[in-house]
Design goal:
The chain has one domain: Hotdog Thioesterase (Thiol Ester Dehydrase, Chain A), CATH 3.10.129.10. Strands 1-3-4-5-2 form a five-stranded antiparallel β-sheet, covered by helices on one side. By secondary structure, the protein is an alpha+beta fold. The termini are far apart. GO terms for molecular function: long-chain fatty acyl-CoA hydrolase activity. This is Acyl-CoA thioesterase. Keywords: Hydrolase. Belongs to the acyl coenzyme A hydrolase family. One of its GO terms (cellular component) is cytosol.
Length: about 130
């Protein structure tokens, strides 16, 4: 059963839009979950990059639950917000919504994840975030 359409979040920033292609599918013809996870990692890094202003690394992802399959040609919108800024790390909440290409404006939530990034120096060691 398809869930009712949702509104795009207004309290988060749109940081990425992408259309998955046939090369991104799994054996069932749906978009491979690992591909979506990689896009979440990219989208999640946008806001921390403004604060860290240098190298960073993904250090943790808290729970991916895929609520709906993603299909070839869907428009995926990635919204994020910073939930925590620590001494060396930043945690971001990323929500992913899909729109059918032929039915734009009707969003269905696909997944959500908390992603933590750590600021690193040139040697790859954690460094303090200066603001």
């Amino acid at each position: 059963m398809t869930p009712p359409p949702a509104a795009a979040p207004t309290e988060k920033e749109l940081v990425l839009k992408v259309i998955p292609m046939p090369a991104d599918t799994n054996g069932n013809g749906d978009i491979f979950g690992g591909w979506v996870m990689a896009q979440v990692d990219l989208a999640g890094s946008v806001l921390p990059a403004r604060i860290i202003r240098g190298r960073m690394a993904t250090v943790a992802v808290k729970e991916f639950v895929f609520k709906q399959p993603v299909r070839v040609g869907d428009i995926l919108s990635f919204y994020s917000s910073v939930t925590r800024i620590g001494r060396t790390s930043i945690t971001v909440d990323v929500e992913v919504y899909a729109e059918s290409f032929g039915n734009q404006g009707r969003f269905v939530k696909v997944t959500e994840a908390l992603v933590t990034y750590v600021a690193i120096d040139d040697e790859g060691k954690p460094r303090e975030i200066t603001r």
